[in-house]
Structure formats: C-alpha cells, structure tokens
Amino acid sequence: MVAERLSAEGERKVPERDTAAKLNASQAQEYWKQPDDGVNNPLEYLVDSERLRARNASLLSVFEKHVDRSDSILEIGCNAGRNLHQLWAAGYKRLSAVEISEPAVNVMRRYLPTVYKDSNITLGAIEDIIKTVPKTRYDVIFSMAVLIHLPPESEWIFKEIARKAKKKIILFEGEGGEDESVRHFPRNYKRVFQRLKRPQIDQMWPVPGLPKSYVCRVFEAMPE
Description:
This protein is of the alpha/beta class. 31% of the residues lie in helices and 19% in strands. The chain contains eight helices and seven strands. The two termini are 32 Å apart. Residues 14-19 have low confidence and may be disordered.
C-alpha cells in the first residue's frame, strides 16, 4: 500500500528550486568517475548492514513480481555490483550494466569475481553509452539511486531508455525535496515516462532500505 505522502495519482510534488549552484553534466561525470570527497566509497556498497539487506529485499521483491528469469537486464550505474549480485544469486543470469567509475568496477572484479565474469559491464557515462545500445537487446532497464544524479541537460536519456526497454523500466529513484545537494536532481518519474508513452503499472513507497524521498516505479513498454 502506498503511503499518504503520494497523491491519488501516485505522484510526489517536487518543489521548484534554484539549480544555479548544481553540477552540470560534465562536472557530474567527473565526480562520479572517482569521488574524492570521502563519501561514495565503492566498498561501502558491499558491506553487510540492515539497511542494505532491506534494500536488497526491496529490489528482489519487485523483480520477482515483474521480471522473468530469462529476461535480459541492463542496470544503469551498477557501482561495485551489489544489485547485480543479488539478481545473479536469485537466478537472473542475463545481466549487463553501465558504470562510469573504474574504481567501482575494479572492486566488483575483486570481491564479486563470478558476478563480474558472468555479467557484461560497460565502462563509461550513460550519456555516451545509451545511444549505442541496440533497441532489441534488453527486456528490462533499471536503476537505483543513479538517475537522481543526472542534471537536466542529460534528461534526453530518458527517451532513449523508453525506446530501448522491450518490456519494463524499473526505477528506484529520489523524487522529493529532501534530496538537497549539488549532485541531486529529484524529479517525478511517473510524469517523465508517461510523457514518453510508458505507463506506470506498479509503485512502491516507502521503499525499505532507501530514504523516504525515494519511490520505486515500474513502467511497461507499449507495443509499437
């Protein structure tokens, strides 16, 4: 059951904010290639904690409901591979991902070698990779706490995601005004993908393991 902070249409209101001090696309990419401010260490994504176990359970509950084991899956921003590892262990074997951070991929290669070997990992920014993805390759495209870091100038990639997910788009993303930093760009993804003719078929809020500003939304691809 979705809590009362979502409207009857399943929307959160994102306040208008001044983004003058926010990172632009180039700055955001440089930051995420190798964060050097003492946060976002790739190893932290692999530790065993109650919060991350809850996040793992949220991911798997949505995939169990909406994704077949035989589906081809692309994760946008896999970091050190925690989500891929959970899916792989649950029997999803056709896994691919795009990741901008080489140090994060190196952590996956070292600590999750089987998942790394069995997955197709492409190193680079999603803005550079998404247009090269064949339209018929992936049944499901998903992200968790990644698209919130895309500046407005990179929003064109949503159209590419909508075009290239054959069955489903699954997003666990921040949508509320609580996400305040120069790296955060909350937006209402239901509105984004409805405009792209990808209807929402399911949602989860709150999402166990993620901040209260995060919503999971599942969108379905429409026959052409």
